[in-house]
Design goal:
With 149 residues, the protein is of the alpha+beta class. Helix content is 36%, strand content 37%. It has a single domain, classed as Thiol Ester Dehydrase, Chain A (Roll), CATH 3.10.129.
Length: 149
Amino acid sequence: MNQAKLEQYLLENIPLSSALGVTVSVASAEKIILSAPIGPNINHKLTVFGGSLHSVATLACWSFVFINLKQLNIDAEIVISASHTKYLTAVTTDFKAECTLENKDDLVRFEKILQKKGKARIKLHAKIYQGENLAMDYHGEFVGIKKQN
């Protein structure tokens, strides 16, 4: 799945991504980068709303799991089960969320458990950048639940 197909999927199936103005800059099994403009995400202090930052980071990690499951040809539901966010600085411009897998063994383990038990968890990390500056650090735990065909 390429970036255009992922973006189309998000816009059609997760309406919040459209409201946030999310676009997909990079979509691969190794890295997801989502971008969003400040305009639809601005708050009363003329900075990006913290909930928007959290949502885009969650979408980046969710998209990482989604793309990897597609590549593995596994039909599964993906849900978030927990997250922790550290807001490091106010975001005053357009921003991007980047999710990469820190340990490839985690994905292998996730796939094996999902195939064997029908349900598996994976911990992912996303970073929100304003330009080249780190603005938010996000950790999320996502669950894959294999669909019964």
